[in-house]
Design brief:
By secondary structure, this protein is of the alpha+beta class. Helix content is 32%, strand content 30%.
């Protein structure tokens, strides 16, 4: 799979920016006790070959329960770790399967018509306006949690936020996470009242231009579904492969349920 190892490493770097972590032989255990309901911050990520699934699952449950957190994990390398999948229910885990598309910018800019009503700016003094846009996006989760996560990532030097205005109104945001020679576009958001106007294309192109200025070799984006992937494809983010994973959890909602409820 073309360069997927790069996005996996970037994913680990990304989560470390807002979580604490402990390593184990099979992967990494991320946690953030201050934001227990922030799913991205509180998961084990397991991708190496598992020698003893029962021991690993017991360890994961004990680790998160000791921190008053719900045990959750992402299991990659699915084909090689079937025995762990079979052991999940025995240890009280529910699970769901995902096959996620991975897109990489091909280095070409889409042809966008000039629109003098559009202004794109880096988020600094306009932080509250950018936050207001994100807090209006239901798929991002609970507004209070969005605010807390925003404040943490905004102050991290690896993140840069951008805000798009249309006729002066703040209506679209996105940010880029940079680690080494790689960047990843995150939190692409448009107010519902301004969707369908192609605004995402303009803010994505601005980030692409900034990535070139920074000399980044790779610029990634991870769509949450096929419909979103088609939107990003218009900005020349091309699919370079798919990542299969199992999401397991002992209680609470599945990720699929959260997306449906939103």
């Amino acid at each position: 799979m073309h360069k997927i190892e790069h996005i996996m490493q970037l994913d680990m770097d990304y989560i470390k920016s807002f979580s604490e972590m402990e390593t184990c032989n099979e992967g990494v255990l991320f946690y953030n006790k201050e934001m227990p309901t922030y799913y991205d911050a509180n998961h084990a990520h397991i991708w190496k070959m598992i020698a003893d699934p029962n021991m690993l699952l017991k360890k994961i449950k004990s680790f998160y329960q000791s921190k008053s957190l719900i045990p959750r994990l992402y299991l990659y390398n699915v084909e090689a770790n079937q025995s762990c999948i079979e052991a999940l229910e025995i240890h009280g885990f529910q699970y769901e399967s995902f096959t996620d598309d991975v897109q990489l910018w091909n280095g070409e800019y889409a042809q966008l018509s000039h629109n003098p009503a559009i202004q794109i700016e880096r988020v600094t003094a306009n932080r509250e306006e950018a936050l207001a846009v994100e807090m209006n996006i239901t798929t991002f989760g609970n507004p209070a949690l969005i605010k807390k996560a925003f404040e943490q990532t905004y102050h991290c030097p690896h993140f840069t936020y951008y805000l798009l205005r249309l006729d002066g109104k703040a209506c679209c945001t996105a940010n880029i996470f940079v680690s080494g020679n790689q960047g990843r576009v995150e939190s692409v958001a448009t107010l519902e009242s301004h969707r369908g106007r192609g605004l995402i294309g303009y803010i994505l192109q601005h980030i692409q231009q900034e990535s070139v200025k920074q000399g980044l070799e790779y610029l990634w984006i991870l769509p949450i579904n096929e419909q979103v992937a088609k939107v990003y494809d218009k900005s020349n983010f091309r699919s370079v492969g798919k990542i299969k994973s199992i999401h397991a959890y002992t209680e609470g909602k599945s990720i699929k349920q959260i997306r449906q409820d939103s």
